[in-house]
């Protein structure tokens, strides 16, 4: 269907980095562009291709490198490198997750920042953090096994917050409301013990 019908455009505020080369966007050097074939948000370097698109009367349109190769029928000789642990796309894991939502995140004495947090079904013991729901690369991952959970906020913390600690490593999170916080805690309490929601259900059935 590529080029035959108009794509769904990913909104600018759904990404913090180019969806092709993964370079972060910033106000000065990284203007956002949309590929007219797939609708992904890309930087100027990755949108520097043009192809005739059927849905637009076969006019020349700006497209990303990947769509350009597909539309003109040329295969990219570069073998796709094996994805590193952070290279997993957010949409890929969010669509098949145990839980995912925005949480506020704080590490050490840095200020709170908003992060799209996901615990994938395939890796139910790992928490992935993205800048936005459509980002193609995680900012960080936390293997939850062995962490201690502290769900009592201090006075300086946000109201619906909880902490994960392991030796000198401390990660603070805060949900928008108590209900969301409890949903996360149910999953995390299992993960730190090496259990998943499925294995817990099996135990209850047995």
TrEMBL record:
Residue ranges constituting the PH domain according to the UniProt record: 96-193
Keywords associated with the record: Cytoplasm, Cytoskeleton, Guanine-nucleotide releasing factor, Metal-binding, Phosphoprotein, Repeat, Zinc, Zinc-finger
Subcellular location: Cytoplasm, Cytoskeleton
Signal peptide: none
GO CC, alphabetical: cytoplasm; cytoskeleton
GO BP: cytoskeleton organization; filopodium assembly
Gene3D superfamilies: Pleckstrin-homology domain (PH domain)/Phosphotyrosine-binding domain (PTB), Zinc/RING finger domain, C3HC4 (zinc finger)
CDD domains: FYVE_FGD1_2_4 (cd15741), PH2_FGD1-4 (cd13236)
A Pfam short name: PH
PROSITE patterns in UniProt: PH_DOMAIN, ZF_BBOX, ZF_FYVE
Boundaries of every B box-type domain copy: 13-63
SMART domains from the UniProt entry: FYVE, PH
Protein origin, superkingdom: Eukaryota
GO MF annotation terms: guanyl-nucleotide exchange factor activity; zinc ion binding
Span of domain FYVE-type: 12-68
Protein name: FGD4 protein
């Amino acid at each position: 269907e590529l080029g035959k019908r108009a794509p769904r455009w990913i909104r600018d505020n759904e990404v913090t980095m180019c969806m092709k080369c993964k370079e972060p966007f910033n106000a000065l050097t990284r203007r956002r562009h949309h590929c007219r074939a797939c609708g992904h948000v890309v930087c100027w370097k990755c949108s520097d291709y043009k192809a005739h698109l059927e849905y637009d009367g076969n006019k020349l349109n700006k497209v990303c490198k990947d769509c350009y190769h597909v539309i003109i029928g040329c295969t990219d000789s570069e073998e796709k490198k094996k994805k590193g642990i952070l290279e997993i796309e957010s949409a890929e894991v969010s669509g098949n997750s145990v839980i995912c939502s925005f949480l506020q995140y704080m590490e050490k004495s840095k200020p709170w920042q908003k992060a799209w947090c996901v615990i994938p079904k395939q890796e139910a013991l790992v928490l992935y953090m993205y800048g936005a729901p459509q980002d193609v690369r995680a900012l960080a991952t936390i293997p939850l096994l062995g962490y201690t959970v502290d769900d009592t906020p201090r006075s300086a913390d946000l109201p619906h917050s909880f902490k994960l600690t392991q030796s000198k490593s401390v990660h603070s999170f805060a949900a928008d409301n108590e209900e969301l916080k409890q949903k996360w805690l149910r999953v995390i309490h299992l993960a730190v013990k090496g259990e998943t929601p499925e294995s817990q259900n099996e135990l209850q059935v047995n």
